[in-house]
């Protein structure tokens, strides 16, 4: 992995929502490759590069807790967002959770006290220019990660749960002893096929001693 990097992320809570749960949020057991990609992109992303998640090392025991929280019951329509972009103002593009007509209280099953090491690399896309290179973007990412810089705040699945991060540059991750052995985590969201209508694709996640090998997005192990 010539242009790979390792990023340690952790947080007090996390929720990587299972799409099959329609009403109340229930998290996967661990961070999904899609969520890991989102954290990396929060630190550095350009149209010239595409992040690829290679491995996820789970560091802490998998623990769930149930919480109840207030959510807004509607979404801002795409048409209103488009109108606001054309008008050049975000006035009116807001839903208030303290509005009794919008507020809904829902239960959620989330993860508590999580930490992972994300191993990833990136590929150069067809949108790259003459001055784009793997070394250039790797240097930018590493520099920003060391300084704790990001374009938008990275999160653990949902915005309410912020993600802390640091570049993992030396040594090997040390998972908790409770993670020793092999565990089938079932079908897990890999990522979305953005070239095919944002179609979700899944893979059978298996954790061995806390380590999850993520298959290439275009492989027989990844199903639509």
UniProtKB/TrEMBL annotation:
<dbReference type="InterPro" id="IPR013422">
    <property type="entry name" value="CRISPR-assoc_prot_Cas5_N"/>
</dbReference>
<comment type="similarity">
    <text>Belongs to the CRISPR-associated protein Cas5 family. Subtype I-C/Dvulg subfamily.</text>
</comment>
<protein>
    <recommendedName>
        <fullName>pre-crRNA processing endonuclease</fullName>
        <ecNumber>3.1.-.-</ecNumber>
    </recommendedName>
</protein>
<comment type="function">
    <text>CRISPR (clustered regularly interspaced short palindromic repeat) is an adaptive immune system that provides protection against mobile genetic elements (viruses, transposable elements and conjugative plasmids). CRISPR clusters contain spacers, sequences complementary to antecedent mobile elements, and target invading nucleic acids. CRISPR clusters are transcribed and processed into CRISPR RNA (crRNA).</text>
</comment>
<keyword id="KW-0694">RNA-binding</keyword>
<dbReference type="InterPro" id="IPR021124">
    <property type="entry name" value="CRISPR-assoc_prot_Cas5"/>
</dbReference>
<dbReference type="InterPro" id="IPR010155">
    <property type="entry name" value="CRISPR-assoc_prot_Cas5d"/>
</dbReference>
<keyword id="KW-0540">Nuclease</keyword>
<keyword id="KW-0378">Hydrolase</keyword>
<dbReference type="Pfam" id="PF09704">
    <property type="entry name" value="Cas_Cas5d"/>
</dbReference>
<keyword id="KW-0051">Antiviral defense</keyword>
<keyword id="KW-0255">Endonuclease</keyword>
């Amino acid at each position: 992995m010539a242009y790979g990097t390792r990023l340690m992320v952790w947080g007090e809570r996390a929720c990587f929502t299972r799409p099959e749960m329609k009403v109340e949020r229930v998290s996967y057991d661990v961070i999904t490759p899609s969520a890991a990609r989102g954290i990396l992109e929060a630190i550095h992303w350009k149209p010239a590069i595409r992040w690829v998640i290679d491995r996820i090392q789970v560091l802490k025991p998998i623990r769930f807790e149930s919480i109840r929280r207030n959510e807004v019951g509607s979404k801002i329509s795409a048409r209103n967002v488009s109108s606001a972009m054309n008008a050049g103002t975000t006035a009116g593009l807001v839903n208030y959770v303290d509005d009794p007509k919008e507020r809904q209280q829902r239960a959620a099953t989330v993860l508590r006290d999580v930490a992972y090491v994300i191993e990833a690399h990136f590929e150069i896309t067809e949108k790259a220019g003459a001055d784009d290179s793997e070394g250039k973007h790797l240097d930018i990412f590493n520099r920003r990660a060391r300084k704790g810089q990001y374009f938008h705040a990275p999160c653990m699945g949902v915005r309410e749960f912020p993600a802390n991060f640091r570049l993992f540059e030396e040594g090997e991750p040390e998972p908790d002893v409770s993670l020793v052995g092999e565990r089938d985590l079932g079908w897990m969201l890999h990522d979305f096929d953005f070239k095919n209508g944002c179609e979700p694709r899944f893979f059978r996640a298996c954790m061995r001693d806390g380590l999850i090998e993520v298959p290439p997005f275009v492989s027989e192990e990844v199903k639509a």
